C-alpha cells in the first residue's frame, strides 16, 4: 500500500539543535503506530515535524502528499487539515461549552452552513461516546471526557491521519484503555493513527507497529511482538490468572526439585585426580541437599 507518511534521512531539529537524525520511516494508510522513547528523546519533536510546526530542512519528508521540505506557507493549513491533532497543549477553550469549542474549529476551517455544522458536531460527539455532553463546559468534564472532546475536535474535518501525543497522560488506566480503544476503532475505519506514549501496557493491549526514539535516531522496535500481557478485567479473570500463575510456579518448583534430585543421585563420574577441584566448586549442589 502507498505510504501516507514518509521520512527519508530526515533531521528533526528544535531551534538550532539536532534532536534526531537519519530518521527514515514509511507508514501506510490505516496503520496503527506507537512512538516510544525516554523523556526528551524526540517524540513530540518528530510529531511536530509531521504537521509542519517544526520545519524539515534536511532530508526528505512527505505527509498526505505534501512535501515537508518544500512546503509553501500557503500549504501549511491544508496539510494540517489532513492531520487530527491530539496534543496536551491543544487544550479546549475554557470560556465556552463543548458544542462551541467544536463549532469554533469548523467555522475557522470554512464551514458556514449551520445545519451541516450541527450535524457534524453531533456525529463526532456520537463517535467519541459523548452525545449528552455538548452543553457542558470543560471544567464540568472529567479528564478522560475532556480528552474525548479533544479527539472529537481532531476528527471534525475527517482527517486521514491522527497524531496523538501522550493522549492518556493525565487519565486513569481504565479510561486510558477506553481512549486508545477508540483510537483503534478510528484506525480500523481506515485512518492512520500515531500515538506517542510511555505506557507500554497500551501497546500490549492494542498492538501496533512501534518506533523508538533512541540515541538521537529512530528505529522500529519489534520487541513488542512478544505475547501480550493479559490484564484481567473482572474478578473471575483475576482468579483464573492467579490459578494459572500458581500452577506454573508449582510446576517450576517440581521440575527444579526433580533436576536437583537427579544431580544428587547422579553417580560420581569425576576422575579421582579432579575430585578435589570439583568438590571446591560444588557448594551449590551441597545447597540442594537441604531441600
Ligand atoms: N521549544 C523548544 N526549544 C528548544 N528545545 C526544545 C523545545 N522543545 C523541546 N526541546 C528539546 O528537544 C528535545 C526533545 O524533546 P521532545 O519534547 O521532542 O521529547 P519527547 O520524547 O517528546 O519527551 P517527553 O516524553 O517528555 O514528551 C529535548 O531535549 C527538549 O529539551
TrEMBL record:
Q: Where is this region: Disordered?
A: 260-291
- Say yes or no: keyword Transmembrane present: no
Keyword Cell membrane part of the UniProt annotation: no
Ranges for domain ABC transporter come to 5-240
Keywords tagged on the record:
ATP-binding, Nucleotide-binding
SUPFAM superfamilies, sorted: P-loop containing nucleoside triphosphate hydrolases
Q: Which InterPro entries match?
A: AAA+_ATPase, ABC_transporter-like_ATP-bd, ABC_transporter-like_CS, ABC_transpr_LolD-like, P-loop_NTPase
Query: How is this protein named in the record?
Result: ATP-binding cassette domain-containing protein
What is the phylogenetic placement of the source species in the record?
Bacteria, Pseudomonadati, Bacteroidota, Bacteroidia, Bacteroidales
Tell me a Gene Ontology molecular-function term this record carries: ATP binding
Skewed-composition ranges (Basic and acidic residues): 266-279
Q: Which SMART domains match?
A: AAA
